[in-house]
Design goal:
Rossmann fold, alpha/beta, Elongation Factor Tu (Ef-tu), domain 3, six-stranded antiparallel β-barrel, 31% helix, 315 residues
Length: 315
């Protein structure tokens, strides 16, 4: 898959040797609703014998308009988004920088300066997609601006349990620790990607050595608690049990540092400094403070067995 980064203020070079059926959206999470839009664009590309493409935007609009406090954490980092789109069969990914120049374009300017220059022959988006300054453009307007140059397809709401599948709904589920329900909406487990750091090695002293993960600072992490997870490093996948939180049994500060610690089953080696992937499978229990170290050790052993039972049913 070819990735092309675009900025409106630098001008968008006209493409004449390729034609695209393009799915447009921010697509954070690439959940089942997003997948339906993208698969429709792929299907249209096959019918028209042109290339399937996706246009997404970076960063999230909240980073431009809301300041530090209003920033929305990402469900899917850009690297992961690229991997999934490539596996879906997308030929070209256009990443348009979401800045004030883009945000100030009228719907007509967006079509003329972006879509027409990219030689787009068909546009597919969700029913609630908006574009142009202050989101004044919608897909009905997208069709009216075509002048015969491109076709349009509007994908209606995709729901599960009578509720729209959306990035907002997924963020709420993650905030509640509902990683299994999140996986149902994504069509795959929620994933955190980060680097293994040198921790306090307390888990090793307790008999349960852990890998301490630092995820990207702009990525969402689930609610504090204990989870059954799948852990991948160097391309090899392991089962594990993960605690995310502030280790209240040991750390009594009001603002203890939040950590992701994974006890990786059947692994013996050095992980420090390596890139690691954590796939969150199911929630086991909330984080809690124990009155003694022995009580904590017994609970960790129980959590490990619970995780093994959960993960054995997922194979």
């Amino acid at each position: 898959m070819e990735t092309i980064e675009l900025r409106v203020d630098r001008g968008i070079t006209k493409i004449i040797d390729k034609e695209f059926s393009i799915a447009i959206g921010f697509f954070d999470g690439l959940h089942k609703g997003h997948q339906t839009v993208i698969q429709q664009a792929i299907s249209t590309s096959q019918k028209l014998d042109i290339l399937p493409a996706v246009m997404t935007f970076n960063p999230h609009p909240s980073h431009l308009f809301s300041g530090e406090i209003g920033k929305i954490g990402y469900i899917t980092p850009l690297e992961e988004k690229q991997r999934i789109l490539s596996e879906m069969g997308i030929d070209t990914l256009f990443i348009v920088e979401f800045d004030h120049n883009l945000a100030s374009l009228t719907p007509e300017e967006f079509v003329d300066q972006v879509l027409r220059n990219l030689n787009v022959r068909h546009v597919t988006a969700g029913f609630d997609f908006t574009f142009g300054a202050k989101g004044k453009g919608n897909m009905e307007q997208m069709a009216s601006l075509a002048n015969g140059d491109y076709g349009t397809t509007i994908v209606e709401k995709v729901a599960e349990e009578d509720d729209k599948i959306s990035s907002t709904r997924i963020r709420k589920l993650l905030a509640d620790g509902e990683v299994a329900k999140t996986a149902s909406l994504l069509g795959r487990p929620f994933r955190s990607i980060g680097t293994v750091i040198d921790g306090d090695k307390r888990g090793r002293l307790l008999g349960f050595p852990t890998a301490n993960i630092v995820p990207g600072t702009e990525l969402i992490v689930p609610q504090n608690g204990v989870y059954a997870v799948r852990f991948t490093v160097d391309g090899i996948r392991y089962d594990g049990v993960c605690n995310i939180g502030v280790k209240p049994t040991f750390d009594h500060r009001d603002e203890a540092r939040k950590t992701i610690e994974v006890n990786v089953f059947d692994f013996d080696g050095d992980l420090y400094g390596k890139k690691a992937i954590v796939d969150w499978i199911d929630h086991i229990r909330p984080e809690q403070k124990f009155d003694s170290i022995d009580m904590l050790i017994n609970q960790i052993a129980e959590d490990k067995e619970t995780a093994k039972k959960i993960l054995s049913k997922k194979d």
